[in-house]
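Problem: given the chain below (95 residues), write out its structure.
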Amino acid sequence: MEEKQGTARSHKIELLSRKSAGLTGVKDVVSFDAAEVLLETIQGTLIIRGAELHVSRLNLEKGEVDVDGRIDSLTYMDQKDLKKTGESLLARLFK
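Solution.
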């Protein structure tokens, strides 16, 4: 499966003082609110948790996203991890 031309082929996170994160290799923003940002990346699903989070820049053509706020955790979930439990992604997130 080919990626769209211009989409970042690598995944990188630059975290600055837990207040700002710049990401590449992002395929889609699944959901976001002030406490959590859920991103589909080329390395799997990434969950960013914190407080007062907001997506300050979004360019899906280039696969780039900037998130600002207090970042408490970054967690990756692979599709194979979801299949093992038989639960949907949303069911696991809202436990």
